[in-house]
Amino acid sequence: MTAYPHLLAPLDLGFTTLKNRVLMGSMHTGLEETKDWDRVAMFYGERAAGDVALIVTGGMAPNREGGVFPGAAGLFTPEDIANHRIVTDRVHENGGKIAMQILHAGRYAYGPECVSASPVKSPISPFPPRELDEDGIEKQIADIATAAARAKQAGYDGVEVMGSEGYFLNQFLVTHTNKRTDRWGGSYENRMRLPVEVVRRVRAAVGPEFIVIYRLSMIDLVPNGSTWDEVVMLAKAVEQAGATIINTGIGWHEARIPTIATSVPRRAFTWVTKKLMGEVSIPVITSNRINTPEVAEEVLSEGCSDMVSMARPFLADPDFVKKAAEGRGAEIAPCIACNQACLDHTFSGKLTSCLVNPRACHEKEIVVATAAQTKTIAVVGAGPAGVMAALTAAERGHAVTLFDKAGTVGGQMNMAKQVPGKEEFHGLVAWFETMIDRAGITLRLEEVATVDGLTGFDEIIIATGVQPRDPEISGQDGSNVLSYIDVLRDGAEVGKKVAIVGAGGIGFDVAQFLAHAGESPTENLDEWREIWGVGDPSRTPGGLAANGPQPELAARQITLLQRKAEKVGKRLGKTTGWIHRAELKMLGVEMRGGVNYEAIEAGGILVSSGEAHAAPTVIEADTIVLCAGQVPDRGLADALEAAGRTVHVIGGADVAAELDAKRAINQGVRLAASL
Ligand code: NAP
Ligand code: SF4
Questions:
Q1: From CA 211, how far away is CA 209, in angstroms rounded?
Q2: Most buried residue among 36, 134, 233, 243 by CB atoms closer than 10 A?
């Protein structure tokens, strides 16, 4: 008897059956743009082999003007069809099904040729769109239908028509972006004409036995968004027009409410999809922040949807469904919703990967094969770099011993998991523990590895991490000064007024930790919705709460400081930095850049401004917390090298600057794959 009966139940679509209720949601990986189609096929093929019922590809442009960026992948020529065939064949060989997403970006297309309902520029693009005339609209519909027909020729099992997230079709639906007075604007019947017509023409182009998913924005989270009545009207019309399945979209890209970041509660929006259940007779899919089989099962068993869509969890672990079905749920590498190697990469023009699984989208490059010659390997340091090096080495058949002076594995992640909004780190540390146990690694905790103790190993990997940087501020030895380790790891007492020295990732974490009182909003959906102003689209258009965001009361008065004269938090994650800044702002945290730390005194910290050390002022504080960055802990590595031993140094022990778990894990996995 499985623990996930709803999740693993097949879904009969009439002309075809999906083997379970899991859809791998669309993600732009950048793989198609590499033009290495074997690489694309490997990525999707591995996911199909992991038993996900239906994969949706990254968005494919139906034409040049609709591409998310100039040169975005599409399906334009016979050669493209042959290339996509390589992917669909691989997925089918591995027992899977795959649908191609057709994504017309409209005014979100990052280029001067972009088009939309009306010439209303998006706040997240510098390019004003060109208003389409009647012929222009017909061209877009025809191009989308042609893309669907080509997808069928290329061997896809279906298409997903992207109608949410504020893209082209969504732009016609709301008055905010559709100012037209012709038959494509004005009344809702007119505004929904385009998406409905698109679905009708796509269905006509592909025939009856082909999956057509329509991704429908159920809560726009922008001013003047769709009302719930309109959402239901559209869903019914789309069903009538020939859609096989309706998938959920949450929030426009320009929305100022986080929808998938790690601080968003799990399954934060499944209640929205549930409202649509019973309104249409085709299957409905829900989405966003579902990352474990338990959560997915709960969502389905509560009748929130007929299927669940998970995207990033399939970067973290291609075998998600297979492991769940085999009762190995604890072995699923968890997506911690950090965006660090997926969306942040996409928005920086880099190939997607995954913080917990560097092989994602790099399957051809990082091959974890059984080692030709088994070795004994010592790994010192059980933080992310060390653990992932140890696991990869063990997977290859090496005999691995993992040392850490602490009593637990996970290193700095044990501090991160204390921070409100970072609860997902608990799951990652638990996964480390499970996998270390199942891999047969000899784990030696509370043991300080020494030069003598490391004799006899064929290879030594040093992942001893970092130490706090000494900011050398006069008065820092005072009893009113703490380090981030005192606060996050050791639970030191902190006063009501706090100054934080250093506004990097850890400074932000400490501010977040100290500003909150009581339960983390990430653990309490009602509270989280209130804080961010997420209402109900049945009451307010677009689902923005009528009374707006309602910040919680801060537990402390905090000033976050940095020396650089740039915006505080500028270097945080590309897609998540704004959320961290907004959260702290709502908690009343004052952020100041361009300061010099003159001295720490009994009543606070004396700072001045700029090179001239102008305007010295005391920032009053009961406690000053030092978060001034980190330096490599290379003590053991240096001692081993001095004794003539060869060592591999990874993670923070190698380079502390710009260190994050993504780089640490990537380095650990790549090294161990090569030993
Ligand atoms: P960091 O991001 O490099 O920030 C260090 C901070 O200390 C900066 O604000 C820096 O700003 C300041 N600083 C540097 N040298 C100083 C000195 N001598 N005296 C006073 N201040 C000094 O390092 P971190 O905050 O320790 O974080 C470590 C790593 O973990 C980072 O790479 C971070 O990205 C990662 N991390 C990430 C997250 C996340 O959410 N993604 C969370 C936590 C940690 P000024 O030089 O301008 O003063
Ligand atoms: Fe999830 Fe982070 Fe991996 Fe992206 S990088 S898939 S958010 S764990």
A1: 7
A2: 243
